[in-house]
């Protein structure tokens, strides 16, 4: 992946999807439910943190969701970079997409109940929500105002920011950062526990990124 010089991209933002959770392992729709990390998820977070430490990354502030799988990932990774006591702000605006009636259901069982095509539409369309839940478009509408009002000002001050969140709240941020369409962002796959380092210009605009997957 490409990198940039400090002069070209003075601002740094690192995004990480939480490590594997108990419900990821069980193939359940999780959403705003609150399962813990698996042993493998803990290991993923440790490895992700070690990769950040190897590159000398340090942060001025961290943000995470109100859910324990993201909070645990955040704590583990910050410990690995030698910042276990870094100021960390948790807010439900960074929560995973709310899956409504699907939450807690096995994905295979949901396919049997509603049909595989309908479930796929709910999972991978941009603006079609599951019953009583959020579409990705709804998630973007929740996440972006919080990012612009609360997180971006820290970046624009030159602070290095770390965010540990979820697949769809990260997609909301990535859509904004990379200027992607709804169709493009729903296709973006995000691995658990893998940091994505964004280099941003003085106005907080995307310059380049590096995925720390090795």
TrEMBL record:
This is Phosphoglycerate mutase. The lineage of its organism: Eukaryota, Fungi, Dikarya, Ascomycota, Taphrinomycotina. It comes from Schizosaccharomyces japonicus (strain yFS275 / FY16936). GO terms for molecular function: phosphoglycerate mutase activity. PANTHER family: PHOSPHOGLYCERATE MUTASE (PTHR11931). Substrate binds at residues 17-24, 30-31, 69, 96-99, 107, 123-124, 167-168. GO terms for cellular component: cytosol. SMART domains: PGAM (SM00855). The active site is at residues 18, 96. The keyword Secreted does not apply. Belongs to the phosphoglycerate mutase family. BPG-dependent PGAM subfamily.
């Amino acid at each position: 992946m490409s990198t940039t010089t400090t002069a070209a991209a003075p601002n740094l933002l690192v995004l990480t999807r939480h490590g594997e959770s108990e419900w990821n392992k069980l193939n359940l729709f999780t959403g705003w439910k609150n399962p813990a990390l698996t042993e493998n998820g803990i290991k993923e977070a440790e490895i992700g943190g070690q990769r950040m430490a190897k590159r000398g990354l340090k942060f001025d502030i961290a943000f995470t969701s109100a859910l324990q799988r993201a909070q645990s990932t955040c704590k583990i990774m910050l410990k690995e970079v030698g910042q276990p006591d870094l100021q960390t702000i948790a807010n439900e605006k960074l929560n995973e997409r709310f899956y409504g009636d699907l939450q807690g259901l096995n994905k295979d069982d949901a396919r049997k109940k509603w049909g595989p095509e309908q479930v796929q539409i709910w999972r991978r369309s941009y603006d079609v929500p599951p019953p009583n839940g959020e579409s990705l478009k709804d998630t973007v509408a929740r996440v972006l105002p919080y990012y612009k009002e609360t997180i971006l000002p820290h970046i624009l001050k030159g602070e290095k920011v770390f965010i540990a969140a979820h697949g769809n709240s990260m997609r909301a941020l990535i859509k904004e950062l990379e200027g992607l369409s709804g169709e493009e962002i729903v296709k973006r796959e995000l691995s658990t526990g893998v940091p994505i380092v964004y280099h941003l210009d003085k106005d907080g605009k995307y310059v380049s990124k590096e995925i720390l997957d090795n």
